């Protein structure tokens, strides 16, 4: 037989619950961790994008402010104003080196302080052109001033309030192919007479920002892929190329139509996630093992009394218990709780049978005792009646002897009929009437009786032989100590679903001591169980107490009993019980 089956089942159930909960927690934490890792990386990418965008905004703002300051320089404005009204088509600055050097001096501070500025150009539509920073070729300058690019610049500022335009050149049109460049951003501002806003420009100042210089400012983002756009058109990128997998892209809008896209590759994502999940799995495995060990010890400790109880049940000498254990062993599925349940079911059935047998035995014992009590009147009553008949015979009154014998025969027949333990009140009264007629034959006018029976009360079932002993008791203890005539009144009636028998005599009445004794014994009866009640009843004992005992066995606390001394002498006894009992 398998041992401790219930312990194994509880342990397996708990292990399954722990494993399921652990797996759910592991999955939930994994999802949360991956999501949180992605969120943090996205936040970092967003922050980097915003930082790179701020750098580009700062550079373009510096370049734009450079154009503003140089465009408002009085000397430069005055020089361009004079050249605006000069009809000489040649480049003024090629011949006038003093003015050229003076303006270059104004440009140098901006070129030196801001190393990302590629070139600063000042020119107009009269053929005049000056550049500071990276050198230019005269032929390329003339080509530029006659190009569609220059015409586009003029169109953008003629008869409009525009203050600047942004453009991009991937190669240096002022140097030619021999000079390699990574491209530059052009910020072009018009130089106008400040007193007249909407007049055509007198010239233009162009600040060129090298993309190489911009990328030098973004070296901290070399591991990211950065692309800069102007009006949605791609300008340049930092040259870094990232794989698509585990790469996150963020785009931010910058000032003046610029935008920036930054791609960041989470190269450590898989490694960090796998390492963290592996560590967590090992930790959870250790916790699960610890919990299972603790559970096992707790289950063994908690179920130990149950196993001990089952062992004792198995070792008991009941016939059915070994059979149950045998069946469990054959089936190969053993559960102490289930087997205990089956064992106790058999025990309860056995206990039920035993209790039913005990009840039957006790009922038979009560019936036998009742019959014995019922029969106890025979010796007393027969002795008294034979005494009366003997006295009548001595007097030679044959008719009364014959009547007495007939009454005695009726009473003996009633008392000896043990087939019924309950009879109608009318039958009980007729039996008592026969007894009182015998008394009347003996005492003639010295003894009188009255019987009043309510119509419904006559058919009520009551315990047999409860009325005549009360009348006999009245004769013995009350009437014989009083003067003639002796009078007994019997009333039978129903009230509030109960029947009542009221017996009244005109004798000396019950004394306080006797009444106290009767009530005390009656109260003692109410505290006794059936077996003790039977022991309290004695053949030939005090007839009133025996009658009360038999009634209490039938009616319990629903029984009615009163005994009192009448004001004008005599005693009244009232018996009663439920009509449906």
Question: N-to-C terminal Cα separation, in Å?
Answer: 56 Å
In this structure, how is the largest beta sheet organized?
5 strands, antiparallel
Strand order of the largest sheet: 2-1-5-4-3
Tertiary shape: rod-shaped
Keyword list:
single chain, 581 residues, alpha+beta, Beta-Lactamase, Heat Shock Protein 90, five-stranded antiparallel sheet, five-stranded mixed sheet, 17 helices
Q: Care to give the gist of this entry?
A:
This protein has 581 residues and is of the alpha+beta class. Among the domains are: 72-216, Beta-Lactamase; 219-265, no CATH class; 376-578, Heat Shock Protein 90, CATH 3.30.565.10.
Describe what this molecule looks like in 3D:
The protein is an alpha+beta fold and 581 residues long. Among the domains are: 72-216, Beta-Lactamase; 219-265, no CATH class; 376-578, Heat Shock Protein 90. Helices cover 56% and strands 18% of the residues. The chain is built from 17 helices and 16 strands. It has helices at 5-71, 74-84, 92-95, 97-113, 138-145, 148-157, 211-216, 269-315, 320-331, 336-375, 377-395, 398-415, 425-443, 468-477, 512-526, 530-536, 543-555; strands spanning 117-123, 129-133, 165-169, 184-191, 203-210, 225-230, 233-237, 247-253, 258-265, 422-424, 447-453, 461-463, 486-495, 498-505, 560-565, 571-578. The strands form 4 sheets. The chain has a 5-stranded antiparallel beta sheet with strand order 2-1-5-4-3, with helices on both faces. Strand 15 and strand 16 (571-578) form a beta hairpin. Helix 9 (320-331) packs antiparallel against helix 10 (336-375) and helix 11 (377-395) packs parallel to helix 13. The longest helix is centred in the first third of the chain and has 67 residues, at 5-71.
């Amino acid at each position: 037989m398998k041992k401790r089956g219930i312990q194994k089942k509880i342990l397996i159930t708990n292990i399954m619950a722990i494993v399921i909960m652990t797996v759910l927690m592991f999955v939930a934490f994994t999802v949360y961790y991956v999501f949180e890792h992605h969120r943090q990386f996205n936040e970092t990418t967003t922050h980097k994008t915003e930082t790179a965008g701020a750098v580009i905004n700062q550079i373009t703002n510096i370049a734009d402010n450079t154009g503003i300051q140089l465009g408002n320089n009085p000397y430069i404005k005055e020089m361009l104003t004079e050249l605006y009204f000069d009809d000489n088509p040649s480049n003024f600055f090629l011949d006038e080196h003093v003015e050229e050097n003076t303006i270059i001096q104004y440009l140098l501070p901006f070129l030196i302080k801001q190393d990302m500025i590629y070139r600063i150009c000042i020119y107009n539509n009269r053929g005049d052109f000056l550049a500071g920073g990276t050198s230019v070729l005269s032929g390329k300058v003339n080509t530029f001033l006659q190009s569609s690019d220059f015409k586009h610049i003029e169109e953008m500022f003629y008869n409009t309030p525009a203050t600047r335009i942004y453009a991009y050149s991937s190669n240096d049109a002022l140097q030619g192919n021999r000079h390699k460049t990574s491209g530059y951003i052009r910020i072009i501002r018009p130089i106008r007479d400040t007193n007249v806003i909407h007049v055509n420009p007198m010239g233009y100042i162009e600040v060129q920002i090298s993309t190489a210089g911009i990328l030098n400012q973004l070296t901290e983002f070399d591991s990211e892929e950065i692309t800069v756009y102007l009006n949605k058109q791609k300008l340049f990128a930092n040259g870094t190329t990232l794989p698509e997998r585990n790469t996150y892209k963020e785009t931010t809008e910058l000032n003046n139509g610029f935008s920036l896209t930054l791609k960041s590759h989470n190269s450590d994502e898989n490694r960090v996630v796998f390492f963290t999940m592996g560590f967590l799995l090992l930790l959870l495995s250790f916790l699960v093992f610890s919990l299972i060990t603790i559970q096992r010890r707790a289950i063994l400790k908690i179920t130990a009394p149950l196993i001990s109880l089952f062992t004792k049940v198995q070792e008991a000498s009941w016939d059915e218990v070994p059979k149950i254990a045998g069946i469990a062993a054959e089936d190969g599925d053993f559960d102490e709780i289930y087997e205990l349940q089956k064992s106790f079911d058999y025990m309860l059935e056995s206990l039920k049978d035993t209790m039913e047998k005990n009840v039957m035995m006790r009922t038979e014992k009560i019936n036998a005792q009742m019959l014995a009590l019922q029969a106890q009147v025979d010796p007393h009553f027969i002795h008294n009646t034979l005494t009366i008949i003997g006295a009548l015979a001595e007097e030679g009154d044959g008719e009364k002897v014959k009547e007495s014998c007939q009454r005695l025969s009726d009473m003996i027949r009633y008392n000896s009929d043990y087939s019924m333990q309950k009879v109608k009140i009318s039958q009980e009264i007729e039996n008592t009437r026969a007894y009182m007629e015998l008394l009347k034959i003996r005492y003639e006018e010295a003894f009188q009786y009255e019987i009043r029976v309510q119509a419904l009360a006559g058919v009520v079932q009551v315990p047999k032989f409860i009325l005549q002993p009360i009348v006999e008791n009245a004769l013995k203890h009350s009437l014989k100590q009083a003067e003639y005539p002796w009078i007994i009144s019997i009333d039978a009636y129903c009230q509030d679903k109960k029947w009542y028998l009221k017996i009244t005599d005109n004798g000396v009445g019950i004394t306080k001591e006797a009444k106290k004794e009767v009530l005390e014994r009656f109260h003692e009866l109410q505290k006794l169980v059936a077996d003790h009640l039977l022991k309290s009843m004695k053949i030939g004992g005090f007839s009133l107490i025996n009658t009360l005992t038999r009634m209490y066995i039938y009616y319990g606390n629903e029984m009615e009993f009163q005994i009192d001394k009448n004001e004008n002498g005599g005693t009244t006894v009232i018996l009663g019980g439920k009509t449906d009992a």
